[in-house]
Amino acid sequence: MNGYLKMKNKMKNQAKIHYHDIGDYLDRDEKLRILADADGLQGVAWQVVTPNAKYDWINQRDDCFDAFHALGDKKNDNAETIFGNYSRGLASGRDSWCYHFSRKQLADNTKRMIAFYNEQVDEYTAKCKVFPETKVDDFVDNDPKKIAWDRELKIQLGKFNHHPFEKHSLVQAMYRPFCKTHVYFHRRFNSMVYQMPQIFPEPGVENVVICVCGIGSTKDFSTVMTNVLPDIQLLANGQCFPLYTYERVASGELLVASEDENTQLTTHNTQHKYIRRENISDAMLQKFREHYSPLTTRNSPLSKEDIFYYVYGILNSREYRERFAAELKKQLPRVPFAKDFWTFSKAGRQLADLHLNYETGEMYPLQEIMSQEIRAATVTERSIRARSVSKYPYHVEQMRFPSKTDKSRIIYNAHLTLEGIPSETYKYVVNGKSALEWVMERYAVTTHKDSGITNDPNDWCREHNNDRYIVDLIKRVVHLSVESVKIIDGLPELGI
């Protein structure tokens, strides 16, 4: 009884939580300056916060969000969601070994790693014949210049399983926003492949996915679309919602013709046969058609592709991101029935066209300022230098801005500066930074400290026989950024 009374008295005198928001992304000096200007803690305008029914103390969620349609929900198989299946991006667990700008170098790296793994299997098998109690962790050679072990690969070793190098596992991937590279996509040498084999089963099987930030990301919500295998950190802890899913048809299996219009057999430019299924259900299509019935006709009904691009349009809406910022930090997106379906759907298609075709799209007319040495060289001299190991004129090491305050120019290398970048470029932000700054960061020569592997973006240019690839990519990303901002700023209100 005494214990009960003590607890009751404690509950009567619960502490109050006082909170003051000083803004995001401030450094230590800026935070201290704000406190100094407020005359210390006593001068701060505090507010008392009380948790809501979902136990949110700050950044409390909007109750109407739960009434929207979930993109996906794996916790509840019976949930009525827009997409039937979705997946995290590829988690290689050994990026330096499994990703590379050079397809040839990637093949060499993975062959070397796999050969060493198989050597370890042989040696472990021999040792276990003499000492059966030998543990894998006590046996393996952890030299990071030979291999990068993870739990799954050690399990395979413990089962004495050999694995060959498989050339068809070399595929293209989107490693970071607007940074395409090669990857060794293989269940045994990637930590987690999730559902990606059903989304991008092999080269030549076409698909597009809407990628979004995962739950708990520290970065503001963003989305991007890709038509190649996405890395899990393409967007922070990213989740990917595909237009289609694929099921491989076993050799010799008789495929019975299906009456379901969502299912079809595809063999386009692939090694195997697959059943392709639309990932948006008939039930969800019917819901959209019923809700937007005045906007559709028998001759031009609302389609699943229309819904797919509508989702992309909604997820790019500034109103949606700002109003539901708290929800998007804590759960996967849910999509409302906006008042103007077609404007969002058409905007989603326009954005998709820009983002999927970024390597071939229009280029923004940036000025290329060459050094006097390069300008003086003849075309023949420049061609010879470009084919050699020399750094003329498009070889890149690490791009940079002239200063923290001047982002109108990029110092590409010692011989080339790109000028005339409009400020609107930096308003198109993906995964915490502008698309252009992602290109500048990723297209740099790097050497991984542990493995010693050097990854050189100039290899991509050489293997694609295009020494201007990165320069032109910058111009294209500037263009798509400016155009994306125009489209996003032109979106109507949600009207919900």
> How far apart lie the N and C ends?
53 Å
Outline, from the CA principal axes?
globular
Helix content: 25-40%
In percent, how much strand structure appears in the residues? 15-25%
- Overall average pLDDT: 87
How big is the Rg?
Answer: 27 Å
Number of strands: 22
Q: Which structural class do you get from the secondary structure elements? A: alpha+beta
Poorly predicted runs are: 252-261, 386-391
Q: What count of helical segments does DSSP give?
A: 17
Word description of this protein:
The chain starts with a helix and ends in a 7-residue tail after the last helix. The chain contains 17 helices and 22 strands. The model is unreliable at about 250-260 and about 385-390 (pLDDT under 50). It has about 500 residues and is an alpha+beta fold. The strands form 8 sheets. A 4-stranded antiparallel β-sheet has the order 4-11-8-9. It folds into 3 domains: about 90-250, no CATH class; about 285-355, no CATH class; about 365-490, no CATH class. Helix 15 packs antiparallel against helix 17. Helices cover about 35% and strands about 15% of the residues. The protein has helices at about 1-10, 30-35, 95-100, 105-130, 135-140, 150-160, 195-200, 280-290, 305-315, 320-325, 325-330, 340-355, 370-375, 380-385, 435-440, 455-465, 470-490; strands at about 15-20, 45-50, 70, 85-90, 100, 170-175, 180-185, 210, 225, 230, 240, 245-250, 265, 275-280, 335, 365-370, 410-415, 415-420, 430, 435, 445, 455. The protein is globular, with a radius of gyration of 27 Å.
